[in-house]
Amino acid sequence: MDKIRIKNLELFAKHGVFPEENALGQKFLVSADLYTDIRPAGLTDDLNASIDYGMVCHKIKDFLEQHTFRLLETAAEKLAWSLLTEIAGLKKVTLEIQKPWAPVGLPLETVSVRITRGWHTVYIALGSNLGEKETYLRNAVESLNQADGCRVEEVSEFLVTEPYGYTEQDDFLNGCLCLRTLLTPEELLALLHKLEQEAERKREIRWGPRTLDLDIIFYDDLVMDSRDLQIPHGDMQNRDFVLRPLAQIAPYVRHPILKKTVGGMLADLEHSQKI
């Protein structure tokens, strides 16, 4: 990925733990690596095809001068979020905020915080088999699109599927969506659980009926196993109701462990079901 670098932008702001820092202020130096696709601008010589680093410098200066934070960590986090959500074409940013006048009572050159934040591509499976099924799914899509740090990029058709596991229940309506998000996997999982709770989902029977079911299938190429979350979804390759809608919007996305595309996994599953 291409990068535009801003180094040691100097500004005067009021961030710090001590009251006098918030009142009097001090010097800060900010460096930023802006990750984007520079090729269109390089081929056309058109500034509109790139990111205007002069505009970014003023955004950084205005943001840090207009806000006051106790911690450099918070200043960096909030600034990164602001840049990523407001600047078109910015895919990832590395920020370093230096505090050369840090009041530590010892001689030093500077104290700094450095973070990297960016947009992630996530595929989420949706399902419902209680009440107004389509309404539950469409409300979930809209809620995700309106959530801070989230942008729904594409949504599959909603397909009627037979229940999986526990079969003594109504047919499901299933779909998948592609989401761009700044949230971590854990933060996204918490958001999905919140939306399920708002839909009054009850977890009484494993694979049982539910008003709304939201599962993370892929999160970039991440592979993780924790007590609460497994990515990629551990049983997706065996679930027709996941693979069919997912293949509509992401047929060539490759499973980071199985090394098969979504379309390939669907073909394998359909072949095994025929046998």
TrEMBL record:
Keywords associated with the record: ATP-binding, Folate biosynthesis, Kinase, Lyase, Nucleotide-binding, Transferase
DNA damage found in the keyword field: no
The protein's annotated catalytic reaction(s) are: 7,8-dihydroneopterin = 6-hydroxymethyl-7,8-dihydropterin + glycolaldehyde; 6-hydroxymethyl-7,8-dihydropterin + ATP = (7,8-dihydropterin-6-yl)methyl diphosphate + AMP + H(+)
Per UniProt, residues of the 7,8-dihydro-6-hydroxymethylpterin-pyrophosphokinase domain are: 206-217
Q: Which domain of life is it from?
A: Bacteria
Which SMART domains does this UniProt record tie to the protein? FolB (SM00905)
- Reported EC number(s) for this entry are 4.1.2.25, 2.7.6.3
Record's Gene3D superfamilies? 3.30.1130.10, 7,8-Dihydro-6-hydroxymethylpterin-pyrophosphokinase HPPK (3.30.70.560)
Copy the pathway line from the protein's UniProt record: Cofactor biosynthesis; tetrahydrofolate biosynthesis; 2-amino-4-hydroxy-6-hydroxymethyl-7,8-dihydropteridine diphosphate from 7,8-dihydroneopterin triphosphate: step 3/4; Cofactor biosynthesis; tetrahydrofolate biosynthesis; 2-amino-4-hydroxy-6-hydroxymethyl-7,8-dihydropteridine diphosphate from 7,8-dihydroneopterin triphosphate: step 4/4
Which GO terms of the molecular function aspect are on file?
2-amino-4-hydroxy-6-hydroxymethyldihydropteridine diphosphokinase activity; ATP binding; dihydroneopterin aldolase activity; kinase activity
| A Gene Ontology BP annotation from the UniProt entry | tetrahydrofolate biosynthetic process
* Purpose of the protein: Catalyzes the conversion of 7,8-dihydroneopterin to 6-hydroxymethyl-7,8-dihydropterin.
Q: Into which family does the record put it?
A: Belongs to the DHNA family. In the N-terminal section; belongs to the DHNA family.
Which named protein is this? Answer: Bifunctional folate synthesis protein
* Organism listed in the record: Zhenpiania hominis
Q: What is the lineage of its organism?
A: Bacteria, Bacillati, Bacillota, Clostridia, Peptostreptococcales
